[in-house]
Design a protein that fits this description.
single chain, Serine Threonine Protein Phosphatase 5, Tetratricopeptide repeat, two-stranded antiparallel sheet, disordered C terminus
């Protein structure tokens, strides 16, 4: 056995300049990366399970459509953090440790949890010096290596750490983990070519081990950086079809199947995309997922002249597939729900494919099949509005089974067109026929008056609501105050804001009104009171500075800006004050203490 001190007691180097980091840029799909945070196993005595989590560093959630009672907007499932067992000591190995060995690892773990990487590494070195023949030695060496990564000594971690695990304990589980960590560390410091080679070797040598899943995802990161779509597709296929799905590997494999399907749909390979999703979803779930992931490709492809034919073909395939997936027997509520969802999905795809003449019949088919389906009528109306055909939209709303809800939508459509008179008239009609929901319709009526800048009428309705809605009168008092403010009636607004009980927000509004009235002293008094709210303290001091500046009080304003920097050096408002001092007054300050130049 070699002298462990030659390897494990490496001299403490200064930063080796190995800190170039790899950054993944989004290029159409989310990718999975490992966090740089590794937590030591919870080394408790006995048979406590050892759990460590690695996190996804960057996920771009791709919104593609969602079925919740209907097929509408849904999103790609985000990649969840999964258990990273690579830097854990297997239970069998743990049982073989003597109590003194466990104790030493517990000490190292304590410093690791505290993110004291240097001391944690030293405690791992101590373990190796004292117990080099222990079954825990390769584990301690692995953790020492990971600590070097944390200390930004990546080359040391690779050459003197991970490689040592492989050389001296080649049959240990930690040797497999170390091989992966070499590739990942190379990737992190920008040694892309070496990282590719190392990670490929890991996958080839351990195709069904958890390291293969991690390595494939790191390779996807690299392919994303290089915008290498074919390589990403190849890697997604490996994760989707070749990796055995376990508790730890399932999430990245699911994500890969989703990404592969989205890409296959974009390429017009409909059947391949469905096969990919079928590895993750069962027959009942699959129609919703096909609809969800094909939506964006259909919209993108049919939206450009050069790809329209491809998009039309994809739409035809998707619609035909959904039709054949519709349950033939719809005698149960569950089967009826599935059929309705599929019909909604077909209507959505027709609209996304820009087949405007086919959209109304598609929704009418749902209305006919399910007897005055307000949801279908509402979605048809929204589609009409997207085509600026508001009259047709209102026709759909007036067909609602729920007449009051339909009329409410009619009123809102008038507001969307800024036809305030008809909106007010319609809301008044609703108040006459739906007294049960008068609070709702009165609030909408007041909003219509405000939209028309009919301030007295709006205020009068809000005052009625203060009396009518005894459960939340403060809500409407705030609206009264806000309407006075919007009308430029600032003194009246201050009076009503003062009656509100939502400190400090009401005080903030009162102070703003005083500033508009050129009453800086009153505003500053209020800001000082607001500062008693810890969350608003830095903001209120910054507002005091601005208020003094507006009042022409330059010296007190400068002092206030500097106080923001001094008192709240890590707050965003300190950054604002710092920039303002430099730009307006040519004064440079150090956050945490002001210094004039």
């Amino acid at each position: 056995m070699r002298n462990t001190s030659e390897v494990f007691f490496a001299p403490q180097e200064e930063c080796e300049g190995e800190c170039e980091s790899s950054r993944v840029t989004d290029s159409g799909s989310a990718t999975l990366t490992h966090s740089h945070t590794h937590t030591l196993t919870l080394w408790h005595l006995g048979n406590v399970a050892f759990q460590t989590m690695w996190r996804v560093s960057r996920i771009r959630a791709l919104q593609v459509g969602m079925w919740t009672g209907l097929l509408c907007a849904a999103s790609l499932m985000p990649v969840r953090a999964v258990a990273d067992e690579l830097d854990e000591l297997p239970l069998d190995s743990w049982k073989q440790l003597r109590e003194v060995e466990r104790y030493q690892l517990q000490i190292a773990e304590k410093y690791w949890r505290e993110q004291n990487w240097k001391t944690a590494a030293a405690e791992c070195e101590k373990f190796l010096e004292l117990y080099e023949k222990s079954t825990g030695a390769p584990f301690a060496q692995l953790k020492w290596s990971l600590a070097q990564v944390k200390l930004r000594k990546q080359n040391t971690a690779i050459k003197e750490g991970f490689q040592t695990v492989i050389d001296y304990w080649p049959e240990s589980p930690q040797a497999i983990a170390a091989a992966y960590y070499i590739g990942r560390t190379q990737k992190e410091i920008g040694r892309t070519k070496e990282a590719k080679t190392t990670l490929k070797g890991v996958v080839a040598k351990h195709p069904q081990h958890l390291v293969a899943v991690y390595a494939l995802n790191d390779m996807i990161d690299l392919a994303t950086i290089e915008n290498d779509v074919p390589t990403r597709v190849e890697l997604w296929k490996k994760l989707t079809f070749e990796i055995k799905r376990t508790r730890d590997s399932n999430t990245p494999c699911v994500h890969a199947s989703q990404q592969l399907a989205a890409q296959m749909f974009r390429e017009g390979a409909f059947d391949d995309a469905v096969k990919s999703l079928a590895t993750t979803y069962n027959a009942v779930q699959l129609p919703a997922q096909v609809n969800a992931y094909v939506r964006s490709p259909i919209s993108e492809l049919t939206g450009q002249a050069e790809t329209k034919a491809k998009g039309d073909k994809l739409a035809d395939q998707a619609i035909a597939w959904l039709k054949q997936a519709t349950p033939a027997d719809q005698s149960t509520p569950e089967s009826k729900l599935v059929a309705r969802q599929i019909l909604f999905g077909i209507a959505d795809l027709i609209a996304l494919a820009r087949r405007d003449d086919q959209v109304p019949p598609a929704y009418e088919a749902i209305v006919k099949a399910f007897t005055t389906d307000d949801e279908a009528l509402g979605r048809l109306a929204v589609w009409y509005k997207s085509k600026t055909n508001f009259e047709k939209a209102r026709e759909s709303y007036r067909r609602y089974a729920d007449k009051n809800e339909g009329l409410g939508q009619v009123a809102y459509s008038y507001r969307e067109q800024q036809n305030w008179a008809l909106a007010v008239q319609t809301y008044q009609q609703l108040l006459g026929q739906d007294a049960e929901h008068k609070v709702r319709w009165k609030s909408e009526l007041a909003a219509a008056h405000r939209g028309a800048h009919k301030w007295p009428e709006a205020i009068a309705v809000y005052e009625e609501l203060v009396k009518d809605d005894i459960a939340t009168p403060g809500r409407w008092r705030w609206e009264v105050a806000s309407t006075h403010r919007d009308a430029g009636q600032l003194k009246e607004a201050i009076g009503h804001f003062r009656q509100c009980e939502n400190f400090p927000e009401n005080y903030k509004q009162m102070a703003w009104c005083h500033r508009q009235l050129k009453q800086p002293a009153e505003a500053i008094t209020l800001y000082n009171q607001i500062s008693s709210d810890k969350a608003s303290a830095s903001w209120s001091l910054l507002q005091i500075a601005y208020t003094r500046e507006e009042a022409g009080q330059s010296e007190p304003a400068i002092q206030a800006f500097q106080q923001v920097c001094k008192k709240f050096p890590k707050d965003q408002h300190a950054s604002t004050a710092h920039a303002h001092l430099q730009q307006k007054y040519k004064i440079s300050v150090t956050l945490g203490g002001a210094n004039e130049e």
